[in-house]
Amino acid sequence: MSRGAVNTFLLVATAYMLLPLTWLLFAATKSLPDLYATPGFAFADLNLGANLSAVAAENDSVFFRWYLNSLLYAGLGAGLGGLISVACGYAFDKYDWPGKEKLFGLVLLGVLVPTTATALPLYLLASKIGVVNSFWAVFIPSLVHPFGVYLARVLSAGYVPGEVLEAARSDGADEVRTFRSVALPMLLPAYVTIFLFQFTGIWNNFFLPLVMLSDQRLFPLSLGLYSWNTQVTAFPEYSTLVITGSLLSVVPLLVVFVLLQRFWRAGMTAGSVK
Amino acid sequence: MTATYVDGAARQRVPARGGPLRGHRARRWAIVLFTAPFFVLFAAVVIAPLGYALWLSLFKEQSSGLGFGGAQSVFNGLENYLNTVADQAFRDGFLVLAGYSALYIPLMLGGALVLALLLDSGAALLRRFFQLALFMPHVVPGVIAGLIWLYLYLPGISPIVAALRDGGIHWDFLGDRVVSSVVNVAVWEWTGYNMIIYFAALQAIPREVLEAATMDGARGIDVALRIKVPMIRGAVITTLIFTIIGSLQLFNEPVVMDGVSDGIISTWTPNMYAYFEAFGKNNYGQAAAASIMLAALASVLSYFVTKWGNKK
């Protein structure tokens, strides 16, 4: 294949990937009549300000609640969950104990269990202990990220040389201290990688919140926008709310991913060469 | 239980402070401390629900007597499984899933592989830009991706429908052929992600191998198909397993389109069927049976794909 053909093909694929996002950008600047009346990839009268204030005002500013909820579910969940995964993966990498590989097999099996298969029984269990429709019903299951443990084991083998730990131990540091002040700083890039994967996983999770939550004020963004969209057939003005809200929920993630490229690349590389 | 270190230096068993015995015990506690948080949570939110689903799937809620005094759980054996399999709606869900997977998996993974090979070919300019741009859709949450494409399928709003109509093509994205529209959303979301994985694996191939092939006079496409693709087989198998598991769970994108599309019904995929049985009909036993069968199918398929991947 010639150089021209290769790059043309890549350009076409890139256009396919970026055009829907570009359309979203145009659509968020339009009023409802213009959304129907003007071409998709052209500006009409600038209505972005009005759309934004409509999103902000709708239903007692519930959109900001959703935004905050998503940040809490994903931010705290990945922050704490990432630490749990790193500690566990580190132990799998640096210690030996009978039955270790069997236990690791269980972790890998956990990667393969469809999350939707656990969500329904999880809902029933949660309703038995009375935590259904609460922050915790979504937050606690989000902490568990078997793929993070797998990544942590692989990355710990790469980032933390055993000799350094041995040196710390012969200096009299106990195991926890060795982990905290020697291994953990070396594992920081691994932590960021695992955090990113878990953060997007929680941010994108739809099934669990859908099953667990009925109180609008606890919804994450995707469930909230979905609930707005179910109103569109009856109230077309929700279209502009859904479109503008979607844009607002996508932009921060895009920015974070562009800025933190190095880290998600590291995770995907580790995942591919096992 | 004896706990030891993995690394070479540690195998010499340098006694820790307080003698070897104390060291053993300290290590054991450290292992428990590091792994317990994960496994306690794992047991609570993965193992227990799976076990509970298994239990639930063997019972049936039955209203007692004249319907007073609430419902009672009655042991039902495999009845829920048989009822689920016998249900036309559940079987139709698998037909939809089969059609979806037959279209989606080769298209998406094939596309990702071609793009990765092109990026790796040496002919590509602006590699970093292309990788980032092609990966972007994956950052968009599935529900939002479904919403964006829903509008791009909607006559009256969609510039795509308008452009096709100007070209004389009347394609109803949300009608009978809605499967291909859902496939398109999934292809859009996942191609870039898998491309990055393939590209990373391609970059890890030792350059000497490729140089030797080029010196032997192999052409670019031959090098790609005969040398590069076989060398990243591990990555291909892994992505295939994850793609199969993901496809089996198909839910978000069609649910978003459910209200607008005539082609999608509330039990359109097996997962939607389980959700509808549980929350539409309060038939938890049957919903659990459907979920268990789906999970079992996922593990059977991953097992065979792994086996097939190792054999070749």
Question: What does this molecule look like?
Answer:
The complex is a heterodimer of chains A (274) and B (312). Chain A starts with a helix and ends with a helix. Chain A has a single domain, classed as MetI-like (MetI-like fold), CATH 1.10.3720. Chain A is mainly alpha-helical. Chain A is built from 14 helices and one strand, in the order αααβααααααααααα. In chain B, β2 and β3 form a beta hairpin. Chain B has a two-stranded antiparallel sheet. The radius of gyration of chain B is 26 Å and the shape is globular. The longest helix of chain B has 38 residues. Chain B is mainly alpha-helical and 312 residues long. Chain B has two domains: 49 residues, no CATH class; 233 residues, Orthogonal Bundle (MetI-like fold). In chain B, α2 crosses α14, α3 crosses α14 and α6 packs across α12. Chains A and B meet through α1, α3, β1, α4 and α5 of A and β1, α1, α2, α4 and α5 of B.
What would the keywords be for this entry?
heterodimer; A: 274 residues; mainly alpha; MetI-like fold; B: 312 residues; 2 domains; two-stranded antiparallel sheet
- Could you tell me which chain pair has the largest interface and how many residues each side has? A-B, 105 and 111 residues
Q: Report the order of strands and helices of chain B.
A: EHHEEHHHHHHHHHHHH
Class by SSE composition of chain B: mainly alpha
> How far is the first residue's CA from the last residue's CA of chain B?
39 Å
The CATH superfamily name of the largest domain in chain B is MetI-like
CATH architecture of the largest domain in chain B: Orthogonal Bundle
The CATH top-level class label of the largest domain in chain B = Mainly Alpha
User: What are the segments of chain A in which pLDDT stays under 50 over at least 5 consecutive residues?
Assistant: none
Q: Report the sheet-strand fraction of chain A.
A: under 5%
Record field, number of beta strands of chain A: 1
Return Rg of chain A in Å.
23 Å
Largest sheet of chain A: none
Largest sheet of chain B: 2 strands, antiparallel
Q: Report strand order across the widest sheet of chain B.
A: 2-3
Helical proportion of chain B?
A: over 70%
Instruction: Average the pLDDT over all residues of chain A and give the rounded result.
Output: 90
